[in-house]
Write a structure and sequence with these properties.
Elements: H1 2-7, H2 14-26, H3 38-45, H4 49-62, E1 65-69, E2 80-83, H5 85-89, E3 124-126, H6 141-144, H7 157-160, H8 163-174, H9 185-194, H10 197-205, H11 207-215, E4 221-223, H12 225-230, E5 248-250, H13 255-265, H14 277-284, H15 290-301, H16 304-313, E6 321-323, H17 325-329, E7 334-338, H18 342-354, E8 367-371, H19 381-400
Antiparallel strand pairs: 1-2, 3-4, 5-6, 7-8
Helix pairs in contact: 3-4, 8-9, 18-19
Length: 406
């Protein structure tokens, strides 16, 4: 899927596109799991190793690639990358890209244009999944109007909203639509720009509900994004029915989601699978470090429920989870922690000490949720974070029972 899309993009030069296509071949359909060595990429693309290194560095700086794990320097352990699909699919090449000039766009397909729609006469596509998860962040008035210049007094929102802000809002909507891969982006964008501001906001806010209701009524097909906008289908939605005491749908990095994650981490470690014979042989020969391999194995298999939460949060679009109501209730004691700050790093050290997998990449989020540090905690930040975890563990035992909190 990613290869097909990259083939139609303008990435700033043939060398950049060639490498991006090869990286997409390594990745799964969610853009994860890219860890070929530079020498292998150079041999397969016929580019020099220095060119490979330069383009990889440029892709990371552009936000197209995310470094998941740096190379350790040990044989066979290369840097692991994941694609940031949102950045990749919205990438616009600049004139200062690769040293090789890109193909002219007069006749080709660029990132801003697509070939004709592939849907049927009714504008609908087959869909296999029947549950639509919400995006990480809803479209807000601030998001929709980000970058708007201040106008004259009395200027309406319709007049003040900039085309760039409308385009950013469109991309959030379009890439959250289940059939966006096969939809016509051109048609959807045309319909989006024809809507007034209030309708665009409503169309986005109710798009996830519409998709969920459309696919849970027994329909096999979901209409295209353009048809949804053209026919204003969000206005025909039935009021959502929620079970009063049922699970709470929660977005990644929200308070309930982070509380569920910690509740799962407080459970005993799962049984670890044995090393494959070839790994044992490499450890015996001294080619792999036994402790490092054991740490990786614990991170991958020790808490499978947590790894599943992390994988869903790293998906594109990000997928939330259903949180039991009793766990959601104890999330009220969580507070926002600045990503990269001293408290955030103290939580990271606590995870490492317990051999827990740490949070996945929060992307552009500035704050993530952790239990608040209780009053009277020690001045030492690591001890204070440990006190916060202990307080949460007591709360978790109270609502989940000892079998749920080790």
């Amino acid at each position: 899927m990613i290869m097909s899309r990259v083939f139609r993009m303008n990435l700033g030069g043939c060398n950049r596109k060639l490498l991006a296509v090869r990286l997409a071949d390594f990745a799964d359909d969610e853009g994860r799991g890219i860890y070929p060595g530079v020498a292998r990429l150079a041999a397969e693309t016929e580019l020099s190793e220095r060119t490979i290194q330069r383009i990889l560095r440029d892709f990371v700086e552009d936000g197209i690639l995310m470094v998941v794990k740096e190379a350790s320097g040990r044989p066979g352990q290369t840097t692991r990358y994941d694609f940031d699909l949102a950045t990749l699919f919205s990438y616009v090449a600049t004139p200062t890209g690769d040293s090789v000039s890109p193909v002219g766009t007069a006749r080709g397909v660029t990132n801003e244009t697509e070939t004709g729609d592939t849907d049927d006469r009714d504008g609908c596509h087959g869909v296999t999944r029947t549950v639509i998860e919400p995006l990480v962040e809803p479209l807000s008035e601030r998001d929709a109007r980000e970058g708007v210049r201040e106008g004259e007094e009395g200027q309406t929102a319709e007049q003040a909203e900039s085309p760039a802000a409308i385009e950013r809002a469109f991309r959030k909507f379009f890439f959250g639509w289940k059939t966006s891969i096969s939809d016509s982006e051109i048609d959807a964008r045309k319909e989006w720009f024809s809507l007034p501001t209030s309708d665009r906001t409503d169309a986005f806010d109710r798009s996830a509900d519409y998709q969920e209701q459309a696919l849970t009524t027994g329909r096999k097909y979901l209409c295209s994004a353009a048809k949804y906008l053209r026919e204003r289908r969000w206005t025909k939605l039935a009021a959502p029915k929620r079970a009063e005491d049922g699970p709470v749908p929660s977005k990644p990095f929200s308070r309930p989601w982070c509380a569920l994650r910690l509740v799962e981490l407080l459970k005993p470690m799962a049984n670890l699978p044995a090393f494959p014979p070839f790994v044992r042989k490499m450890i015996e020969d001294g080619r792999l470090d036994a402790e490092a391999q054991q740490r990786d194995r614990i991170a991958q298999h020790g808490w499978p429920a947590v790894n599943e939460l992390h994988a869903r949060a790293s998906n594109f679009p990000p997928k939330g989870s259903l949180v039991p109501p009793d766990v959601a209730a104890i999330a009220d004691g969580f507070t926002g922690i600045k990503v990269g700050g001293s408290v955030y790093e103290a939580w990271r050290r606590l995870h490492e000490a317990r051999q827990w997998p740490f949070l996945p990449n929060p992307g552009k989020l500035e704050y993530v949720q952790f239990p608040a540090i209780p009053d009277g905690s020690p001045d030492d930040i690591d001890e204070a974070v440990a006190a916060a975890l202990n307080a949460f563990e007591r709360s978790a035992r109270g609502v989940r029972g000892d079998e749920h909190a080790a």
